[in-house]
């Protein structure tokens, strides 16, 4: 949990909150797209 807190604090210092939120949303979309693609191949 400490690593996550440090990471979030570091990222917050790099981005404004809005930019950070957008970047995080895009990152989550990329991951979910990859997971969905992997499931499609497995099916």
Summarize the structure in short:
The chain has helices at about 1-15, 15-40. It is mostly helical and about 45 residues long.
Tell me, rounded to a whole number, the average pLDDT: 75
Instruction: State the order of secondary-structure elements, H for helix, E for strand.
Output: HH
Name the structural class: mainly alpha
| Major sheet details | none
Which regions are unreliable across 5 or more consecutive residues at pLDDT < 50? none
Rg: 14 Å
Helix content estimate: over 70%
Could you describe the 3D structure shown?
This protein is mainly alpha-helical. The protein has one domain (2-42). The protein has two helices and no strands. It has helices at residues 2-14, 17-42. It starts with a helix and ends with a helix. The mean pLDDT is 75.
How are the SSEs ordered, and which strands pair?
Layout: H1 2-14, H2 17-42
Key terms for this structure?
43 residues, mainly alpha, 2 helices, single chain, 0% strand
């Amino acid at each position: 949990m400490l690593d996550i807190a440090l990471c979030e604090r570091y990222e917050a210092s790099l981005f404004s909150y809005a930019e950070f939120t957008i970047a995080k949303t895009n990152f989550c979309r990329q991951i979910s797209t990859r997971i969905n693609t992997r499931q499609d191949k497995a099916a």
